[in-house]
Amino acid sequence: MEETIRFKLNSEEVELVTDPNRILLWVLRDHFGLTGTKFGCGIGFCGACTMLIDNEPVRSCMMPVSEVAGKSVITIEGLEQDGRLHPIQQAFIDHDALQCGFCTSGMIMTAVGILGQNPAPTREDIISGLEDNLCRCGAHTRIIDAVQDAAEKIKGGEKK
Amino acid sequence: MKREKLTESAERAGTGMKRRNFFKILGGGIVLLFNPFSFGSLLALPAEQRRTLTKDYNAFLHIAEDGTVTCFTGKIEMGQGIVTSLLQMMAEELNVPLAKMKIVMGDTELCPWDAGTWGSLTIRAFGPAMRAAAAEARAVLVQMASARLGVPVGQIQVKDGIVADVRDASNSVTYGELAKGKKLEKYLDVKPQVEDHTQFTIVGKSLMRSDAYDKVTGRAKYTGDLKLPGMLHARILRPPSHGATLVSADLSAAEAIEGVRAVRDGDFIAVLSEERDLVDLAVVRIDAQYSYDEMKVSDETVFDYINKGEYRVNVVRSAGDTETAPPICDKLFEQEYHDPYLAHAPIETHTALARFEGDKLTVWASTQSPFGLQDSLVREFGMPLEKVRVITPFVGGGFGGKSPHRQGVEAAKLARITGRPVMVAWTRDEEFFYDTFHPASVVKVKSGIDSEGKILLWDYHVYLAGTRGADAIYDVPNQRITSYSEERDKYPVHPFGTGAWRAPNNNTNTFARETQIDIMAASAGIDPLEFRLKNLKDEKMIGVLKAVADKFGYVPGKTPSGRGIGISCGTDAGTWVAHMAEVKVSERTGRVKVLRLVCAQDMGLCVNPQGALLQMEGCLTMGLGYTLTEEVKYDGGNIRDRNFDSYQIPRFSWLPKLECVIMDRKDQPPQGGGEPAIIGVGAAVGNAIFDATGARLFRVPFTPERVLNEIKQAQGTN
Q1: Tens digit of pLDDT for each residue in B535-555?
Q2: CA-nearest residue of chain A to B620?
Q3: ipTM of this complex prediction, to 2 decimal places
Q4: Do A104 and A142 share a domain, yes or no?
C-alpha cells in the first residue's frame, strides 16, 4: 500500500514512503514541518492551502500526495531567495496587506502564480486571479495594491 | 455568595507560580508588578467578568539585562493589530525605542488576568492601565538611575532608554545597565501620571504591523502549527444537528484503520492518530445512530416565529410620552426590520493543543479568552488554577466567535484519556456547526414627524438583538426604547448557540434606525443629510456626518434621486461613526454593486492611525457581507451552511473604493476601533438602493432576489 514518492520541495529533492492517497497539505505540514501553508475549508474553496506545483497555484487540502511525484512543489517557506523576501512578500509588508495573517500564505502563493503567468497584470486581472481566495479580516484592497506594486517592482528589476 | 467564591479563587490565583518562576523563565532583570487595584478601568468591569481582583501583584513589565522591555498582557492578537498599538503606548511612556520592546500575550502563567479580547476594549479600557504601568515603571527606573548617577531625579531626562544627567550627558546609564545582574521585583501601587498628549512622540504616529514579516514568511505560529512529541490529532464525532441525541455508535470500522485509535466517554467519541488525514478518514467510518428532537423553525420562518414569542421585556429608555404623541405628528411611520443569523467564519477554525505533564495541564488555544478557557478547564477537571496554563499563539481571526472555547476543553479531555498531547483542529463544518451566531432579530419602529420634518415620536422595539446601538441618538421629545430578550424555558427561539458578532447587535439596531430615518426624510421631502443634521444635537455625530459628506463630495438632493447615494450614522464602543455609500443596482437582476464606501470616525485619541485604518477597512469589508450575502440557512437544529461554498463572505471583486477619515481628537481619551465602522454599512447601502431605485429593503442581506422583489413592488405602487 505504501509507495516511495519523490519530488522537489522548495528546491530540494525529497523522498517519502507513504500511502499515496495521503493529503498533500497534511504531509507537508506534519511530515516536513512546513506549517506556513494553512488549512481553511478542506474543500478547495478558500485558498488558504495554496502552494505552487510546477509553478501553478494549486490547492493542497484535497490533493493526494502521489500527484506531486516527479514535480516541483514550492510553499511559502520556499519563496525567499538567499535570505531576501520575494517582492510579493515585501509588498505585503509595505502595504500592510494582512491582519490575522491566516489567509496570507495562500494569497501570496496565488499572487506568485498570477505574476508567473502574466507579469504585467491589470488591476482587474489581479482581482479575478485572487477572486477565489478568501480573507475574513478585509485586507482585500491592500492585497490588490501590494500585488500591483510587486508586479511593477519585478518588471523594473528585470529592466535593470 | 458569588462574590465570596470569586475572592476565594482570586486568593488561590494570587499565590501562584507567577512570581516564583518569573526569573526562571525570563532570566534576570527588573520585573515591575502592579496591584490591579491601582487600575480603575479593571475595577470598572462587571463583577461576573472579573476573576482575580487579587491582593497579589501582576507583572506588567520586565526590563532585561540587554535593555529589552517586555510587556505582558492577557489580551490576544487576532489580526486587530494591538501587538503594535499597545507597544506604541508603552514605548511612549517609557521613552524606549519601539525596537527594544517585546510583548507576551494571552499566557495565563505570565500575564495579568484579563476578561477577554472583545468589545473593542483593548485600547480604551485596558490601554490607560498599560500606559500608567509604563509611566510608573519609568519613574522607578529614573529613581534607580538617580542613585546610581548621583544626580537628583529632577535633573534627569530619559531618551531612547538612556537615562542621563541633563547637565552632563556623558553621565548616563541605560535601562539595560540598570537591570544588569539584578533579580529585582518592584511592587507599585501609586496611580501614576501619564504623559500629556502634547508631548507624544510615538503615540499618534502611523506604524505598520509589527507582525507582518512573520506572517508573510509563514513563520508566525498559530495553534495548529505547533507539534509536540507523541502528539495525536483528533476528530470528534459530531451530531448531524443540534438537538440530536446519540443512540448508538459502532466504532469498529474506524478502529480498523491502522494507526487510528478510538476513545469513548459517554456520548463523547473521538478518533485519534498521529496523522491528521487518517482521523479525517476514520471519523466518517463511525456508524452512529441518533434520535431527533428538533425545533420547528427555519431561516424562512424565523421572523414569524420571533413575532409570536414571549419575552423578558425591558424598557431601556423613556422620555416624554409615546402614547399621546401620535396625534400631534403630521406623519406617522411604522416599519419592521429583519436580521438573520450570521457566522463569524474566521479563516482559522477553533484549534487547541493540550498536554498533561504530571498534575499540570497546558493548553495552547486559538481563543479570544485565555483566562476564560483556564476557568473552564479548572471546572472541567477540578484542578487548582495554578496547575492549568493556557497559552495563546497568534489567532487567525476571531470577530467575537472565539470567545467560546469548547475546543480547548475537548483537547484537554482527550489528552487526559489518552495520556498523550492532543491537537483538536475543527474542520470548517465543525466551525459552522458550533459557531455562536449573531442572533436573528426583529426591530419594530413607530415614529413620527411634524410638518417641518422634526421628529416628535420614536417608539423602538428590539427583539433578541439587545441594546447595543439601540439609542435613538436623535433629539426626540417622545421616545421609548424597549428590548425583548429570549427566555429559553418559556419560548426558545435559537436552536443553536448565539453570541457576539463584530459590533454584536449594533449592526441590527443601526440598520433599523438609519433606514427609518431615511424613510422619514424621503417622506418629508428633505435631503437625508439635512434631515439628520436638523434632528441631531450631538456635536460629535454632527461632526462625523459633515466629515463623511465632505470626503464624499456630497451634493444634497431629495431621495430617491436616482444617483444611488445613501447615508447613515451611529455610535459604537465609545466611537462616533458615519457612512456614505454609492451603489449601482441592476433593475433586471436585482444585483447591487457598491461603488464607493466612505466612513468618518471620531474615536478620540487614535494611538496608531494606520492600524485604525486597517480596522476601519476590515469593518467596511465585513459590512458588505452583512449587507449583501451573509445569512445562515437552517432547518431546526440542522445548519445547512457548513462551508464557504454556500455561506458567501466578501470577495475581491465586491470591493469598492474604501475611503476613511479619522477625526483628530488627541485631547480626548482613546475609544474603540475594531468594530464601529461596520455598524452603518447595511443602512448606508440600503438607503443608497432606495435612492437609486425607490425600492426599500427591510431585511438583510439584500440578495438580488429580494432587491428585485422590492423594485417590482415599488414600481407597482408608483
Answers
A1: 999 999 999 999 999 999 999
A2: A138
A3: 0.97
A4: yes
